[in-house]
Each structure stands twice: as structure tokens, then as C-alpha cells.
Amino acid sequence: MRFDIVTLFPDFFESPLHSGLLGKALAKQIAEVHLTNPRDFAIDKHHRVDDEPYGGGVGMLIKPEPIFAAVESLPILPRREVIFVTPQGESMQQSMLKEFSTKFDQIVIICGHYEGIDERVMNLVTREVSLGDFVLTCGEIPALALLNGTIRLLPGAIGKEDSLKFESFEAGLLDYPQYTRPSVFRGLEVPAVLRSGNHAAIDRWRTQQQIERTRIRRPDLYQCWLEEIGQNRQEEVNPE
User: Are residues 148 and 177 in contact, defined by beta-carbon separation less than 8 angstroms?
Assistant: First the structure.
């Protein structure tokens, strides 16, 4: 799978692309990441990529010419998504990352800066994505999150792929609490059921913990889970 990051600050990605799971996945050629700097496509001698907004206002906007030229310089794979990361976009979710990892051969991510970007750039974009309802100084941070979250879902990126099935959000619930040795630490004990060897009891305990943790910490997710469970049961009773 190919990722193209259109960024004014390619150095931002230098360490993350060579570290941890992401670095290993790229070394194994599970995915490839290419960085393209719009400044290389600026048409004036100062390589200027920003200018004042029409109509006045605070700050500077990224000009359309270098962004268009940068994106148009990239190869086009058959299944391609061009993403602009912005607080105004669709909230990044696990289901979205799964879609990226299975339905696309190429993801192009345009990183914004300054006060924003010329609206005409949206003609290149097929999807706007947000990291959350807050504002950051650059688009590289959500771009890296999207990159990391998608690549880790690709086959071979994680050693034990079964572990992906039991993560938070996979069943619409948060993850259950986990423990390792020692069994007692500063008076805090590992729940007895986890040391019982009774795998059926352990599975029941973990499921209950997921439900309770989601109900308390994320009532929005809990409500969606209840609705989905109800819908599934209704379909079992009344199959089409």
C-alpha cells in the first residue's frame, strides 16, 4: 500500500517513520511512504507557498498552485483516496482506518498549515478527516495518526494478528483490563479469575468488564452497542 504525504515539513516524519512498528512495517515493505514538499513546486524565486486571504483576516493561507502541482506530480493508483486533514472533517474512527487498510491501494494526505488553505484545493480532495474537535498547529500530527492507525492493520504489520480482534472498538466496546506478573504489587492483586485457568470464566469476566468499562467511560459507545445488539437479535428472530 502506498501513502503520499504532501507536507511543508517532511522532517516531521523522519523519526516516526523509522521507529517502532511503523518503521518495521516499512522496512518489510508492507507499506511505502513518500513525502512531497509543496515548496518544491512554488513558482516564485523565494519558493513562497502562502499569501494573505482575500477579504482580509488574520494569518496567511496556503496558496493553491504548489498544492495542485505537488498532488499532480504523484502517481495515481487504481484505488486512491485524497485526504485533507482538518478539524472540519469527518472524525477519525477505527472503522475508517479499517476501510483505508482494505479498500485502497493509495492514500494521499494533504497537511495544512498557517491559518488554512485556499478552498480551491478541495477540488483535489475526496475526503476530509479530523482528529477531533480541537485545533492543532499543523496537519502533520493527524496525518501521522492516520498513517500509523492504517498501517498497523495491514497484513503482516503486527506479529500476532489475532490480537487485532480483541482491541478497543472492534466489537463496539472498549478493551478489558489486563494484567501481568507479579500477581500482587503493592497490595494490588490480579483478579483471581484470571489466575484460575478457567478459560470460559475468563472470557465471561472479560466481556463483562468490556461492557461495564464502556458504559461508565463511553456512554455514547455503550448506547450504540445496545442498539446494535438489539438490531442483531431482531434480525435473528425475524430473518428476511
Answer: no
Q: Give the count of alpha carbons within 13 A of 83, CB side only.
A: 30
Type of residue found at 164: L
Show the domains of the chain with their CATH numbers.
Answer: 2-151 (3.40.1280.10), 167-237 (1.10.1270.20)
Q: Residue 44 — very low, low, confident or very high, per pLDDT cuts 50/70/90?
A: confident
38-61: average pLDDT: 91
Closest to 70 in 3D by CA, of 43, 44, 39, 113: 39
Q: Rounded to whole angstroms, how far apart are CA atoms 127 and 108?
A: 10
| 157-207: pLDDT as tens digits | 987 555 555 555 667 899 999 999 999 999 999 999 999 999 999 999 999
Beta-strand relationship, 188-189 and 184-185 = antiparallel
Give me the amino acid identity at 113.
Answer: H
Pairing state between β 50-51 and 2-6: unpaired
